[in-house]
Amino acid sequence: MSTLVQMVAAESVGLALLWVTMAVLHISALIAGFLDFDVMSHFVNGFTSYLVIMHLLLNGWLVRIYWDKISRSKAVLLYVTFTIPLYLLLLRVRHAVAAFRGKDQVVARREALKARYGTSIENSAVVEFPSLSAAVRRASCVPLSAETSTNGSQGDSEVPLSSWVVTETNVDAGSELIKMSSDDVRVREPKSFSHLFMSDLYELVAGRKTLSFHFVLNANNDIIHVSKTSILPNGLPDRIRSTSPLTICNDTHYLINFSEGIWYEEVAIAARNEKSFVTVTQSNFASFIWYFTMHSTALLVYGLLKNLRCNGRATGLYHAGWMFTAAAWFLTCRGADEPWTDTFAKIPLRLCFTICRIFLMGAVATDGLVKGAILYLSVKAAGYLALVGELVYKNLRRNVRLWGDVVDRYFFDKTLVMSYQGGESVVCCGWAIWCHVCQRSEHSLAQLVAVLLCQAAGMIYLNFVRRFLKEPMKNPVRILMMAKDRLNAAEKSI
Prior knowledge:
The protein is an alpha+beta fold. The chain is built from 15 helices and 10 strands. It has a 7-stranded mixed β-sheet. It has a 3-stranded mixed β-sheet with strand order 2-7-6, with no helix packed on it. Helix 1 packs antiparallel against helix 4 and helix 11 (369-397) runs antiparallel to helix 13. The longest helix is centred in the N-terminal third of the chain and has 34 residues, at 2-35. The two termini are 21 Å apart.
């Protein structure tokens, strides 16, 4: 328990301090640019416009979301001062402090979980079922499970399955409710290439991702059924199995719906047992709060290179600015339930690939913003073309549908894809060579060597990084534990 509290507290305090440090460095970078406005005018105008527009949109959207959660006067004050993200981060710190001060272990764990999901909007409800008479028959709703009459006993003698496999969730097409019977499951037709490009590829790289898990636990709290689907069911199977005689499902059901967009993550949990039905929906906007850090890093790198080219005196300030902003991006490119071991394992990849490419783009952009835009578009096009090529090759030559499983599609991360990173690396190396050939200098040579070494190191490390990744969210049991944690954080456990 103390380890959980310490980790969540360190994360909450660290992110809040990181936000304050970034704000100070961004303002300092603007001041340094204004002191040399004749040379740094492009950077000052671009960085100022970006910060103002980004904070107007970010704080405005957060005000809209949290308008009914905080007082109106406080919301207006936070919006005017551009501090709504900091306010939300400080709420996490408050819960972490409460977890430290809590003497009761249950209260401490609940506060720690609230700190972990502190940037979420939560909606929850509890429905208590009326008590049942002793004559009501209780039975499991899972096929192949033993069904016995209990005569009023709450702990009937189910025969748990010795092992379970993850199957496809059977969702009724009309009501969108889960069905336990699999009699009408249709055999799926092979995916066409048009579906591959128009649906699967779009879902992998840009579309809204969805994933649903359905768990059934018996009276002994053993898992007897797990299923998954990319559809988001509206509800659980009917609680009443039969009316003559009246038979009630005595299993505990968990329905966990994941939905992820570019700026948000939503988790909807429905839990039901014989006595109550609980729903909790959490919309996590942590990625939205930190989304701007990548663009800020790119602009600060551009300002640094512009400052170096003009023999500016604010080099140390710009170095500190991009480093802290990049660190914020490193530490926030993660889900609320992703372990820190996976986050830290991916940092070398993002440093060798993304940050190195940002420096290359900034160096090219100092000779013209159009060149920088062309470099960016060509690099991204090469990455996506390489990804498409791998998908087509594996499908045609090996009859393998990559990322065909719904879990793999939901947790797809192009940072870990060899073909995508290889395509981008080849184009980046080509641009670095071209820049050195066109403008031979010590700076271009150092840039060329750095790009080649970083891309090579990144590709080598990519071959081994999966050995260090735990990826617990691909484990169904871990997803069930996560659902129970979120219910406990919402104080709505069944």
